[in-house]
Amino acid sequence: MPNHCLLLTVTTVAAVLLTAASANRPRTILNAYKMLEKYGFPRGIIPQGMQSYEIQDGFFEVHFSGDCNLRMDGFSLHYSSRVAGNIQNGTISGLEGVKVKIVVAWVGIREVSRNGGEIRVHAGVVSKSFPAGDFSVSPQC
Fold first, then answer.
1. Does residue 121 contact residue 109 with C-beta atoms inside 8 Å?
2. Is residue 73 within 8 Å of 130, Cβ to Cβ?
């Protein structure tokens, strides 16, 4: 009888560990873009090539296989391999890992907000609004 109890205990612990491990796995990329839409942002504010993301209590991290440089609407953008910040409906604040080139200097984008049909990007003391439709498709790195 003790062998059966040990087997039952080991099986139960293994099931719990497998369930916990699957719950901690990074969510699928498709869901990451849906997560953005859930908070009112178009999927195009994050480029293609996302490897994983995590979100907990409004704090999120997005991971890419490497850094990403691209041009959008005449601006040079740099996404680090890790992008993080706080997200709530219509606002991403405390953003880390995204920079825009303004004239000759790279400036960190610290906040992105959505107000109706506009996306407003805040970088340093500069902010600029863009039509949300400009971000309907994720750019390719």
1. yes
2. yes
Counting beta carbons within 10 angstroms of the beta carbon of residue 127, is it exposed (0 to 12), middle (13 to 18) or buried (19 or more)? middle
**C-alpha dihedral, 64 to 68 to 72 to 76, nearest 10°:** 140
Nearest to 91 by CA among 63, 53, 58, 138: 58
Tokens of 44: 């195009």
Q: Report the pLDDT value the prediction gives residue 32, as an integer from 0 to 100.
A: 78
Q: How confident is the model at residue 29 (pLDDT cuts 50, 70, 90)?
A: low
- Tens of pLDDT, residue by residue over 53-62, are 999 999 999 9
User: pLDDT tens digits for 70-103?
Assistant: 998 889 999 999 999 999 999 999 999 999 999 8
On whether the CB atoms of residues 53 and 26 are closer than 8 A, the answer is: yes
Q: 3-class DSSP state for residue 51?
A: strand
Quickly count: other Cβ atoms within 10 Å of residue 74's Cβ. Answer: 5
The answer to whether the beta carbons of residues 39 and 87 sit under 8 Å apart is: yes
Tell me how far apart the alpha carbons of residues 63 and 88 are, in angstroms, rounded to a whole number.
Answer: 19
Strand partners, 129: 120
